[in-house]
Amino acid sequence: MNAIILSIGDELTSGLTINSNAAWLGQKLSALGIHCRLQLTVGDDQAAIVSAIRQSIGTCDVLIISGGLGPTEDDLTRGSLAQAMDEPLVQDQEALRDLEAFFERIKRKMTDNNRLQAMRPRSAACVKNSCGTAPGIIARCGGTHIFVMPGVPKEMKAMFEQAFQPLLQAAAEGVVRQITRLNTCGAGESWIGSQIADLMQRGANPAVGTTVHDGIVSVRIYASGPRDQVAAMIAEKTAAVRQRLGALIFSSDEITLDAAVTHELLQRHQSVATAESCTGGMVAMMLTNIPGSSHCFKQGWVTYSNESKAAELNMNPDLIKKFGAVSREVAGAMATLARCAARTTWAIGITGIAGPDGGSPEKPVGLVYISIAGPKSDDELYIRTCHFSGDRQSIRLRSSQMALTLLRLKLLGLDPDAILPP
Amino acid sequence: MNAIILSIGDELTSGLTINSNAAWLGQKLSALGIHCRLQLTVGDDQAAIVSAIRQSIGTCDVLIISGGLGPTEDDLTRGSLAQAMDEPLVQDQEALRDLEAFFERIKRKMTDNNRLQAMRPRSAACVKNSCGTAPGIIARCGGTHIFVMPGVPKEMKAMFEQAFQPLLQAAAEGVVRQITRLNTCGAGESWIGSQIADLMQRGANPAVGTTVHDGIVSVRIYASGPRDQVAAMIAEKTAAVRQRLGALIFSSDEITLDAAVTHELLQRHQSVATAESCTGGMVAMMLTNIPGSSHCFKQGWVTYSNESKAAELNMNPDLIKKFGAVSREVAGAMATLARCAARTTWAIGITGIAGPDGGSPEKPVGLVYISIAGPKSDDELYIRTCHFSGDRQSIRLRSSQMALTLLRLKLLGLDPDAILPP
To answer: A277 to chain B, minimum CA–CA distance in Å?
Structure first.
């Protein structure tokens, strides 16, 4: 089976938005063993959309379209599809009822433009959108299956996985491609690469590679093979990578660092509190990202000013005077005092210099102290001195990720200094 | 003038690599006033490449090709271009000498495959590569200018800017395309669209369209015209949009909501504190994103448990017993008490149900109360009841964005209820 991906939007042709949807769909199709033979991208221009659809109909098994289903004047995909299929647009009664119910639920008035979102080519069907208002469309024309989805990535992904992937899975046969990702935090990409260099030979199957995304280094393992063998091929190579990287791996596939840490806490019925300075609430936000986190996250302080560290955490002001707000001593006190005040199993303290201002030769931008106070004894306290590079955003993100990583290793009963490269 | 961008590589069609080259080129072409009417992406497959080039020749002024110029078996662009142009491949003597000199310099043996990199269609010319081995190609066929560049982003960008951009600039004869974006928060895309529907007529120049990205609805204004007029065209249309949307617009172009709010606070030498429940620190994180925010953000509380609301904010526990932790009364008390404890000009209080669990018929998932305590009098307090749709992540994000929006409107001395749609 082969496919064409058609992406629609002026923001794509003008380069304002990078077309990550097409890459995501390409990966999904690959995994299903479907060859993407062409990607097309056109702007919000009916003639161009109609021409791209006509060019695709009859020349591929599957045409996947995303974008242009919104409620405004520049959303032209429905009309263009009908024109390319030589069919009139008709109102879909069920989709209209769903839309009306949606607006009823969020207590907003439905506009006439929203009503247009429930139109479809006569022989086509509407597909429910679980995360937004615009229904998708499924159609068949000239031997080509046509799937139309919204361009908003979250809505597109949910609709593809819920509605279209099962249909494609059933239709695709034989050789499949499977990908597994092992996610690490706490070591750089080149260090991770050096630990598994011999597993990364080019042309091997399964192939092993590394990627970095938002500070998380992932090891990807791809295998191509018969449907009944590919899982075993992946499992063997995965075991080899796990043996090398051990506890640096916090999850596989889509599981995020915050989810992995929250899971470890919930599983042990343990709780955590945070006292943050340079990360400004980011660690608390990560620890409350996951449903159910209210069972393990109790309380957070964002003590951005020196006065707030003293007033809210009952910190001895002399400590800040003597060592400075950015110091091992203050980081340690933040965790110890937060754990005590919130009566939690664990607490995290962070203080550092996120920049761009505020650095000095002794305490440069990127210097961050992270401490973990724990339950073993009243004075159990781990403190790590970190030097992060990059801009303010990445220093804040790396600091928060390192804090979660240190908490995770302590939860597992491990010594972070024995696991993380210096 | 109009252009087609053709990207070549299996890593693109399979989605392993996101096609950021096409977006970069789209922006460059827009800035030159050249309309990108189509982007095509095909794999390392000679038949597919030849077909894409043939389809483009004669249908656009400029065809920009990237990828497939390397020295390996799967680099097929040179041969495909010659085939599409019905010309033989010939050796370019100067490019060959450059290649030989390059390998001499790095003291490596030149392979036969490298020698192939100095081939070109007979009527074409080679273009020097300042950052790598593969020369580019410039050709003309069927009225279309053809520019071929390597796919490695650094080499592609350098070659485009050094060799092709000056040619295109001269050819584009002064017509340029300019884009401005006005960013709004607090109203949905369809509501924004309904306020400016008459400005969004299709085919107009400047053209007006809307996009949504991470909860922010932006109005984009594109104009094409002579270099000396386009700024005025944009300015006129921008003024018309601003007149309709007023204070809903928080910034233009790349300025984020957190930056806009931080700027308003700094400008007034005012300060803010936060008391968050369902957003778990996200508002504090946003208010500390921007360099210099330590001058206006003083302190944040993440009072996730009922006990922490009482203990840390000195909230009367009866309030929670009587009205529930998610109530107007508790939201109001959170802001008032946080402002008092942190001694700031403003404070934000948020409590709500981010889901997926914890909802009830009276208090469904998505119900969020946001309060702003202010400096006018001791009991100045604004409270808004919001109903957000979507999953946990988007409810948390929307709540945080709405909190910043409400603070922004109060900072400007405006009544949020008079500005935001109900």
So the answer is: 9
